[in-house]
Design goal:
The protein is mainly α. The protein contains nine helices and two strands; from the N terminus they run H-H-H-H-H-H-H-H-E-E-H. The chain has a two-stranded antiparallel sheet with strand order 1-2. Helix 3 packs across helix 7, helix 5 packs antiparallel against helix 6 and helix 8 packs antiparallel against helix 9.
Amino acid sequence: MTDADARAEPMPAYYARRGGRWAQWWTVLHPPYTAWHLSYVVIGAGLAPEVDWAELGVTVLAFFLAVGVAAHALDEVNDRPLRTTIPDRLLWAVAVVCLTGAVALGAVTISFAGPVLVVFVVLGVALVLGYNLELFGGLVHTDLGFAVAWGSFPVLVGFVAQAPPLTGSAASGAALATVAAGAVSYAQRCLSTPARDLRRRTAAVEGTLTRSDGSRRTLDQAALLAPLERTLRALSWAVPLLAGAVVVPHLHG
């Protein structure tokens, strides 16, 4: 492939960058989606009666290492969906170090939240490895698996890490938010899957849309991508803003 062909080829994601090492790592970290899913941790914590800010910081950092870095590095080393040239050894090393760091931070959190969090630490590691390496016959690597692992799970852990009462109105609210986050992440997957297919696995799109009034519109890759990625961009801003709205009242609580 020539340099001109590479420039003409669609980027593997709307936030992807061409260039050297830092541009490739930016792409691997999926910044809009990482911020989106870390926001679920903040939402879960914000639904607790009281927020321990240090504990929230540790929990967010643990999820950043596990989901934002390790999971995405494993996803790239698995089948190179982002077409980076980062060496496999480096991706593996970063994934192992960051996942180990996340577990260590989880151990710190256990001292605050109690032994109930041990189950979530173990489950979190299983989800990262199972989803991104497509283990267990791809059992976790599904639309529902994505919704649970990257939507519901962060909300639940964010809440439990604050050591709140596990009964009462706060727990009920957290349960509803857990389901809601899963539903939003399921919608994300329904949008991102066809967008990825258009960007990464489609050579050409040809077609015409004919409206009831007889007018016509040419269908191409850009026309099909636009509504999918506009929605994804909007949601990648909306969820972090919602997380802010949930925790801001605790600043003066």
